Fold these 2 entries.
Entry 1:
Amino acid sequence: MPAAPDAIVTINRRRFLKGAAAAGASTAAVAGGAGLILLGRDHPEVAASTGVDRVVRTTCSPNCTGGCGQLAFVRDGKVVKVQQAADYPDAVYNPRGCMKGISYHTLIHGADRITTPLVRTGERGSGAFREASWDEVLDRMANEMRRIGERWGWDSIHVFGQVPGSGYIQKGANYRASALLGMTHGTSFDFNGDLPMGMPITFGVQNAEHEAKDWANSRFLLLVGANPVETRIPDVHFLFDAVERGAQLVVVDPNFSGTAAKADTWLRIRPGTDAALGLAMAREILAADLADMDFLRNFTDAPLLVRLDTGLRLREADLRHDGDPDSFAIWDASVGRIARVGTDRLGMPGGTQAALAGTFEARLADGSTVEVTPGFELVRRELDSWTLDRAAGVTGIGAEMIARLARAYATAKPAAILMGGGSNHWFHGDLTGRAMGLLAAMTANIGVSGGGFSVYVGQYKVRVNVGPWFNPGGTKARIVPSIYFLRGRSETMHPDVPYPANGFHALVVTFANMFVQSPDLNRLHQTLSQLDLVVVVDHQMTETVRWADIVLPATTWYEKTDLTATPLHPFLQLQQAAIPPVGAARSELWIWREVVRRIDPAKAAEFMEVTEEEAIETILAAGAKDNGPTAGITLDRLREGPVRLNVPDPDIPFGPQVRDRVPFPPVSMPAAPEATAAFLPTRRIEFYKEEERFRELGEAVPTFKDPHDDGVHDPVTYPLVFLTPHSKWRIHSTYGNSPWLAEIHGGRPLVLMHPDDARDRGIADGDEVEVYNTRGAFRCWAQVSEAAGRGSVTLPEGWWPRDFVAGKGVNELTASEVNPIHEVHFVPNMWSPSTGWKDCRCEVRRPEGGNRA
Amino acid sequence: MRYVAPKEATVPDRRSPIDLLPAASREWGRIEPPSDQPRWGMVVDTERCIGCWSCAVICKSENNVPLGAWWNRILTEGEGLDLPTTEHGSEEMSWTPLACQMCENPPCVKVCPVQATYVRDDGVVMMDNERCIGCRYCMIACPYGVRTFNWGTPQRPNGLETGMVAERPIGTVEKCTFCVHRLEEGQVPSCVVSCPAGARIFGDLNDPDSRVSRLIRDREGRMLLEDRGTRPKVRYLPARRRRGL
């Protein structure tokens, strides 16, 4: 019998009501004596809840986009229960939260918790450390940083931390310190492959999604590569709300997923071919005369003329010497001549009938003539090649089914496309996004409740004005996309990327399990071997921590203060400390304050002597100006619970564009408006991209390209596509060491494969197998099921290496190649290289000596 | 079998976790106003259940259930955890959360030689762990397999005691209680609060207008293993018919 903590109390409810001290209620009944037959009211009185010391409202915020309000129940300084707060004023959002969040206390007080600073004593990666004091590790860190900074430049010190949207203050402290010391800071939304490059290319925004409750307003939900039943657990009920109101739910996924199980129709698609499906649907919608051509004229670049000699758009400056280089032209079919179109307002010039097809002659200012054609003519030529049969051959979905899907999608109003990482995490994921965006625009499902094209991956969204906090005294951290940290600069890297002149010499990792969760891990280890200093801040003993020289014990979000928001719902929320830091753990703000103090006391005094609450007040005040998103929101209100940001209800993108004809793109915080406006010279939704690289690579209009890895790993030697989706049981690698969840899922990484693929390789369910390609290999166990499609295998990412047979996991195999299209412009996390986790081929075999089931 | 008395202590400052809830949270968990003589029942909507185990995990946390034991589990209707069956020619999968069915005619009560398992006036089938002698007849009698047995020293994650009720003595049987400690304070069971999909509804079966009564009527709430005559007060709503494109 383990010693029960004194905390365990049995309290009689009536005693509670009287406010008296507690005592066992059941003792009296026991005194009634064994052998007595107890009936009805003679049974022991049931004890009410055992008491707690306090209940604290906070926000669960791993990198999952949930942003779920939780209550921490505290007894004797320990969190003994976490449960959803269910306190959203918009009750449809209640209760928000999942089995992972409500088990978090088993990690706060778990066996892997780091409670003291550590200094490496063995080889890197050996996991040999000794305990140290804060003063020792901070002095050492500061001294090393000063030495490296003076020798190689401060920009050679790189800070990597995940998605600032899930904690503006503590993650902001990383940016603030980077700015003050001149360090480079990495990126995450793009590095995670979650940046849907189709969005900046087409809509000029980082990303723009409907708040989750708006799913319920849809009549038709088309989910591509999205599995909300497993990965959007707090929000998935909005799909069911829509279905109960008569909506149809169609799921496109290579695997029979949890979401497929709930669908009206599930379409098994060949991995990485979603763009081909989209293009064939678009062709069918045009052929059936179901497209809204006026929407295309008014809000997209469809009518804008393109010069066939240069491939550039026809501008007013081409037509007249004094013409505006930023004004464009259409062919007014009503009078048979060219008309000017400005960028100050959407719509078409009054009285015109803009042509969307045909080739015309334009007389230029120099007197010469060139052939011009509406951009949509070029789009249509590409679509013409995407016959139903061709798409069926590429996608594996029947031609007749594609036609029915296209017509159903185009006739249901409003219809929503929800895209997930399964479609986005490809080298050419941008092409899929562009094809889906085209469908949404052709059917006028943009800017309307229940419609839209939304991509839900990554808690990337900066919804408040973080500038005064991230950028102290007007300085800004130099942001280098993390992919260049991993693999060095590319030949086509944008010149604005502040890549350090002397390369990278030190790394500080916070809020991340970088040496497990990065792609192409063997390359990352090459970079690691060149570093003089690796510091890892974490609260769990992850694999990444094992590679550190210095380990700093972090607080969990139940031990500190922060401010959070998410793309999925528009409520601003606090994280509030429920318990004191466990052991010697400290917050990131505290850590950076101490580091900066040791390096530059003057800067520390001016910029780091600030509390979390003061930082929050600063952000709230900055965002309240001009009726901004935090107008009317105070720290006191946030202490009480979630407060809806000052945004439209429902919060859907592009309302001002479609309703009031305000030009695209809306602002993507924290970028300056002009930075993202450069993505869309026409200030309209763009399907034709005139930048030279798009034309060189044959991607000027939405098209389909074979997966990139097909050219790296030939499909004969590596016949299987290797899919590593998000797991139901983890948020990336967080919760990978959850003892309760391991009891449910079994705790062993299983690679899902089709029975025929397994049989061809002599593999049975439960066999130990090796999964490999030219980048690396790992061993796990086979799970054979028809849930898998033929030709692909699936193992959700985020398992801890120690759970595999030989300590290596899925990212031994994944790729890190940079798509040059993603380097045409550069705004960090907005137009920046997005990774393609699923664009990966492999083979699977039974290893010699491997265990059979 | 060693008898272990429940731990008792006096900590004057401690308060009921229900009293400490923020007002909005307490309102969310409030039981729909019952009749004069409530009979508690639960509806599980299998159309909405996503097999996420949130109800099971909060149960484990709320009730301080040791590692290796679950009062509430989620069965996959398929080929194993979250895998479909292809029995009918195409892939199909659904989930059935399973805990004590709170039978009107509970076989466990009939077989208990010491009357340690009994039915309260409000219909909740309960365990008196101080009377339980660990014979486990009830576990054999229960057709749903929802009772667990405390074999030895309970193991907890890194020793963390969780939850809002006292642990049970070693060598006794335990199971779902409909969170009676919460019912006593007017709150629905924790699994109902924590279901993110709105798949669990709790209320008074004696009130014909309660939400549970209406759902059972309107959507043909079914009993599990109805042929056994146990008459559960937990009912399951079937999934919708799928529409083809």
Note: The CA atoms of residues 91 and 216 of chain B lie 28 Å apart.
Entry 2:
Amino acid sequence: MSATTDSLVIAHRNLIRMARIPEMLIFGLIQPIMFVVLFTYVFGGSIQVGSSSSTQAYREFLMAGIFAQTVTFATAGAGAGIADDMHKGLIDRFRSLPMARGAVLTGRTLADLVQTALTLLVLAIVAVLVGWRTHENLGKVLAGFGLLLLLGYAFSWIGALIGLSVRTPEAATSGGLIWLFPLTFISNAFVDANQMPAFLRHIAEWNPFSATVQACRELFGNLPPGFEASDAWPMQHPVWASLIWSVLILLIFRTLAVRKYRSATA
Amino acid sequence: MPGAIYAEGLVKTFGDVRALDGVDLDVPEGTVLGLLGPNGAGKTTAVRCLTTLLRPDRGKAVVAGLDVVKEPDAVRRSIGLSGQFAAVDEYLTGRENLQMVGRLYQMRAGAAKRRAAELLEQFHLTDAADRPAKTYSGGMRRRLDLAAALVVSPPVMFMDEPTTGLDPRNRQQLWEVIKDLVSGGTTLLLTTQYLEEADHLAHDIAVVDHGRVIAQGTSDQLKARTGGERVEVVVHDREHLATAAEVLRGFGKGETTVEEHMRKLTVPVTGGAKLLAEVIRELDTRGIEIDDIGLRRPTLDDVFISLTGHLAETATETGSGTGTDTGTETGTGTDANTGTDANTGTGTGTGTQTGPETTDTTGKETTK
């Protein structure tokens, strides 16, 4: 009981901070919006997905990839925030209070989840403005966003562990971002993985990130005409694969992060 | 019956460094213990062990009747900690900070709100209550930090260098706040590098150096250990120093210290004003002209030097660096660590009284 309340109190604290430092949210939005515009207008006409090379097909194909990439950037935010907290006197105050041990981390990741949701909302509006449409019922579309948020939440725990392992918030930011680029590019996010060389294709198909992207495409009705999912299990059952990957990442990294927090200065 | 804060044989090592090397403390309920020592003496580590932030390698610590290692959560409910660096969230307002801490002490939202308002009033922060803490001055932040430590009116408080970095006016203000608090019956452990601060606030003082408590007692007891009063003479003529030293030795209860280029002699005495009059008469009889003479009680600086063989770090800021070195070289301070003889430690580190203009201390010598 106290663990829930404590986490919410810390989440509230972090949300107040975010509201008072709006530049963080704004910079967090610029990058995905830039990607939407660049990929739509610069690459849009030249990338073939499925059997279609129409701009509209790529536009719809692309959005799930950009949404998924955006939620994983929460890793950097959570990491930097926690690294910052750990090196200020405030952490001693928290540690000397009769509060739940994991609440500092849970509160931070919950606040990041709220920020991710806001970012997704704005991004979805921009996507609609450049011509993105869904072709499934609202329930499925919302389920797609649910999977995205779950992925983002799971990744923010990776960020938490990074934040606890480095000495400065700057290191946490770069440490949180650097591996995200190969992870999100060696995937089906921006191109049709079926057209990759075999060994990259295998990585892309089993990439946890690809599962969520594929699941969203299905749930949004954004699979391009003539697109055939590969035989790899995660691509055949992307919703399940996405859920399993996210829950697994969440459980593993939450356990590691909370353990690291407990022993951080003891 | 152990006190509200009790420690026995606390040891904490970081790699090769023994930050705590067997610390024993006993603070009776409702009293203030000042933990006095230079940077790196182990004060902060001791506080961190007692407040459950660090787990001691060895030894026992009991706070408010609860074992620090075995029942950390129960201890956390009974203590307030105010740290060396004001531990407040600078993007939150003063009110939000206090409400958050109240909630984390498991208070209900309404109660936390009321308590925050009370504390803001008490610490004269009501006007700034709804501004982010980063707009606060250093003194205001310290007050907010202290208020946060008092949210549940804990029976036992720890303050780690509460006034370090504050200007004199803010320090005075904070002292008043701390005195009020203690008069309400709170047990307090306070660390400080300011001898004056310990003198001012603490009932008992434990002098810490190299992870050990090297002396403990009231301010008066510690000063008495250092040799009661001193007669200080400044002679007019440098040639008269030797004769004057001879005169003082006749009256003194310990080593006579001579600071040659200051033309100053110091000797521990007993006998007060009457003795002082005799000293003046004797010097006069011998035809020694004096510029200044006086009786002074030893300061905690004297105590610190006699115990540790070096000045407290803050004192060296005003004294000359060479003064510290001399203090260590002539240091009979190691004797003082083990001995209880009040006079063994005196005569060292006469740098205390030297002003910044004192650059040449090589002329000092200690006579028996």
Note: Residues 136 and 232 of chain A are 24 Å apart (CA to CA).
